[in-house]
Each structure stands twice: as C-alpha cells, then as structure tokens.
Amino acid sequence: MMKINNRKGSEGCLLDDLRPRIDVLGETFIVAWEARKLLAAENTSGPGIVLFNLPLTEDGKSYQCIYDPVNKKSLDIICARKGLPKGAVVIEIPNELTLDPKSVAREMGLNAAELLKVYPAGKVLKAKAILWEESRFPALLKKMNSLSIKKNKLR
Predict the structure, then answer these.
(1) Contact of 114 with 100, CB cutoff 8 Å
(2) Domain residue ranges in the chain
(3) Model confidence over 66-110: pLDDT tens digits?
(4) CA distance readout (Å), 73 to 30, 48, 61, 89, 134
(5) Quick check: 155 and 136 in contact, CB under 8 A?
(6) What are phi and psi of 136, to 5 degrees?
(7) H-helix segments, the chain
(8) Does the pTM of the predicted model rise above 0.90?
(9) Nearest to 55 by CA among 128, 138, 118, 150
C-alpha cells in the first residue's frame, strides 16, 4: 500500500502538497497517479479509490467507479453482484489526462508543456455522482452474468 509522507521537514515541500486534489462528494482526495489511486487526504494510508480496470464513459473523458463514501474506497464490480453496501454510489472521475497531466507526461515520455496546453493542470477537480442506471455497470453485470451462465453450461 502506498503511503504519502505527511511530515513537514527540512527536506522541502510536502509531496502531497504538490499533487493534484479532487473533491469526491465533499471529501478531498489526493491524486497518486503512479499508484493509480485517489487517496483520502485525511488518511493517505487508507484503501482509497483504485483507478485500475474502471470503465470509461462513452466519450472517454471520465472513469466510472462504484464508491463507498462511508469507508472512502472504491468497490469492485464483483461487490455489485453480491449486493452493494448502503450508501454506495456511482461516481464519474475525470480521466488521467485531466487528473494529473504532469504525471502522465512524465510516465509516457511526452512533452509536458505541450500536454499542459491541451490539459491544463491546476483546475478544480470534482467527481460527480450519477445514477446507477446511467452508468456502464448494469450492462457490465449483465455481460458478466451471461458469461457465468455460459461457463456453467459448459461444465
């Protein structure tokens, strides 16, 4: 699990002070793109929101995530098959080019100045809650269930 150093010291700036932040339903999260996570600012050692294997919106500008606001963490689609905890919602999170263009440029060996012209850093970032029915998850669950049924028939 990634831990961000929250101590101020003579070494210079705090690492998390330099990272982009995003508002997720009123809670501040720190973008840790290299770990593919959003970490709750109040507890950076917590599970956070994992950005692996999330479906993109049709336009590719946002990821969709099942989010548990009580525990401030993302939930796997497998959880949805079993039943979501009370209060869980679907949120849309901007893609990595909007979340942290500097880290993406560094990771991919791109010219950061050119990328920042198209995707400027420093924007106020905010995730938005959407209805379950408007998300990509119902179709994904339907596909998962049909694959599961086909697999059981082959046995």
Answers:
(1) no
(2) 15-150
(3) 999 999 999 998 888 888 888 999 999 999 999 999 999 999 999
(4) 13, 5, 21, 11, 21
(5) no
(6) -85, -5
(7) 15-18, 77-82, 96-99, 101-108, 112-118, 137-154
(8) no
(9) 138
